[in-house]
Design a protein that fits this description.
By secondary structure, the protein is of the alpha/beta class. The chain has three domains: about 325 residues, no CATH class; about 80 residues, no CATH class; about 120 residues, no CATH class. The longest helix is centred in the first third of the chain and has 27 residues. The chain is globular, with a radius of gyration of 26 Å. The chain starts with a helix and ends in a 5-residue tail after the last strand. The model has no long low-confidence stretch (mean pLDDT about 90).
Length: about 575
């Protein structure tokens, strides 16, 4: 590695560290309970041998990594005599999730820094100089919505970098008709989908590239002659890594038999294997008997790419096999409009007006430049910008179709970065023009100035006021109901984002809940209801629905609380039957 490449990598990491340093590193777990609480609670359940119920992303690599980390903490604690058994360890962590912050925020930071380095390496290789790589990584850390979640367990930044990585292998495979790089692209795409399902958008440019410029005959021999020497060179770390992984798989799966537990799990394995095997058989017959026209659809190389995708998908799923197979069921349901996509009206939240404000304004510029690079690349017969632009278009369309939140555009933004910068490359010069640093640093400045710490402060003050309110109002066995699962009180966040997702949760001392059903399960009496002052009856007695149950008969009390006295209180006079 040259000196310039090293300097660029160090500066890229410095930019990422700067972003992380400006975040509220020490804020309490519940302020980012979505999704941190669900990830951590389910990782502790995996350690206990229970199932994970949080498969919305599905986010299995993070849950696996945290389960391994918690396992290491447990073994150290047991060896030193501080911990007696796994359940006690897990209960202790879940009842005080701030104890887990060093572990899961370190993991989040490692992923964020690793994603930044991956973007740096890809852009440097595509554009030929470390200055381009540095500019690309600086733009990446300002991707919409990423800076404010750089220390959270949201998978968006890892997803964005992995999408760009899959795009890099796709375009370089296209240029060299390399079967090895096509294989790497398919495997990386499969792995990326276990982080977050939006990675499926990169299947489109991969498919287009593989159909457009498939490798020549003898592709399997080329793969073996390329991979075998590299494997021999790296055998000293590949073999120990494989052994450690097999041991971890045995440890985590030995208490989880039988692995296949539902008809849905069995069906998805049988149907998937039947499709892949049937396709490979048809492809072999077509190539063996040279059936005209059919070879445009059925090729053994396409079957190989499908297999590579499955291998990449299976790697993180193998650590906890039963949950891994269930995650495949969850993926299918999500991609067909179920689970988190149920009830989402496509493009209902999309508005061009939202791109006039930061951060979508900056994202819109980079995405537009990436798409323009695709058009110019076709004109210049440089096809890699076009292939990446195709991925950008698909990913941006998916983001617009589903809620259109800023962080959803991060993968499209990342994939657009190399093409956007390539537009400004000068002929005969490898390094980036000095004048281009001005807009790059301007975007970085806007990203660093976009501070959301005031929100954390407001929510912390609301929680402190709520605890004082509970001290003043509640008697033993009583609980206060809140209107939303995201109401800014620690108890509410625990009930909805930890207890609501995890198989095993210890007895938690609830004083606030958003789910009346949980109050009934815990033997607690709903005594009061709190909400924004404008959402409560003006005065007297009224009927309201709370958490999907009702009617509750409530009486408004002359109490206002909160940072700006924006919340009110009502006494619950009569509650419906809670089941």
């Amino acid at each position: 590695m040259g000196r310039g490449t090293t300097v660029g990598a160090v500066l890229a990491l410095a930019a990422a560290f700067l972003v992380v340093a400006l975040q509220p590193v020490r804020h309490s777990w519940w302020l980012s309970a979505d999704p941190d609480g669900a990830y951590v609670g389910n990782s502790l359940n995996i350690l206990l041998g229970n199932h994970t119920n949080y498969l919305d992303h599905p986010g299995l690599p993070t849950q696996d990594a945290l389960a391994i980390g918690f396992g290491a903490q447990y073994l150290i604690g047991k060896a030193t005599g501080g911990i007696s058994d796994r359940e006690s360890f897990a209960n202790d962590r879940m009842l005080d999730l701030d104890q887990a912050r060093p572990l899961y925020r370190t993991w989040a930071m490692i992923l964020f820094l690793g994603a930044t380095l991956l973007v740096y390496a890809v852009v440097r290789r595509l554009l030929g100089h470390w200055t381009w790589g540095l500019a690309g990584s600086v733009l990446f850390v300002t991707a919409p919505g990423l800076a404010t979640v750089s220390l959270l367990l949201r998978p968006d930044w890892a997803l964005a970098a992995l999408c760009l990585g899959a795009g890099y292998f796709t375009v370089t495979a296209f240029d060299h008709r390399s079967p090895t790089r096509y294989t790497a692209a398919a495997m990386l795409l499969g792995f990326a989908m276990t982080m977050k399902l939006a990675a499926i958008g990169m299947a489109v440019p991969l498919a287009v590239a593989a159909v457009w410029r498939s490798p020549d005959s003898g592709w399997l021999r080329r793969i073996s002659t390329t991979v075998a020497p590299r494997a021999r060179r790296h055998v000293l770390w590949l073999v120990p890594t494989a052994v450690v992984w097999v041991v971890l798989c045995w440890i985590f799966n030995r208490e989880r038999l039988p692995i296949i537990q539902t008809d849905d799990q069995r069906a998805i394995l049988i149907n998937g294997a039947t499709f892949l095997g049937g396709y490979a058989l048809f492809a072999w017959l077509v190539e063996r008997f040279r059936i005209p026209w059919a070879d445009r659809i059925f090729r053994l190389f396409y079957a190989w790419l499908m297999l590579a995708f499955v291998v990449g998908l299976a790697l993180p799923l193998s650590l906890v096999l039963d949950d891994g197979i269930q995650s495949l069921v969850a993926m299918r349901e999500t991609l067909t409009g179920g689970r988190v996509n149920e009830g989402v009206e496509p493009f209902a939240d999309f508005s061009l007006h939202s791109f006039l404000d930061y951060p979508l304004s900056a994202a819109g510029v980079i995405i537009a430049l990436g798409l323009a690079a695709g058009v110019l690349g076709i004109a210049r017969r440089r096809y890699w910008p076009f292939i990446l632009a195709l991925g950008t278009l698909v990913l941006a369309t998916m983001a617009a179709a589903r809620l259109s939140q800023p962080n959803y555009y991060a993968p499209a933004f990342a994939v657009a970065i190399p093409g956007a910068l390539w537009l400004f490359a000068r002929r005969g010069s490898r390094s980036m023009p000095y004048l281009l640093w001005l807009p790059v640093l301007l975007i970085l400045g806007l990203g660093l100035a976009h501070d959301e710490s005031a929100q954390w402060e407001r929510e912390s003050e609301t929680n402190a006021a709520a605890q004082q309110l509970a001290d003043d109002l509640l008697r033993p066995g009583e609980v206060i109901l809140a209107p939303s699962y995201y109401f800014p009180v620690e108890d509410v966040r625990f009930g909805s984002l930890v207890d609501g997702f995890a198989d095993h949760v210890p007895e938690y001392p609830y004083r606030f809940l958003s789910a009346p059903r949980v109050a009934a399960e815990r033997g607690l009496t709903p005594a009061y209801y709190v909400a924004a002052d404008s959402d409560l009856p003006a005065e007297g007695v009224a009927k309201v629905d709370i958490g999907g149950y009702g009617p509750f008969v409530v009486e408004r009390l002359p109490i206002r609380w909160g940072r700006e006295r924006e919340y009110g209180v009502a006494r619950i006079l009569e509650a419906p039957a809670l089941e």
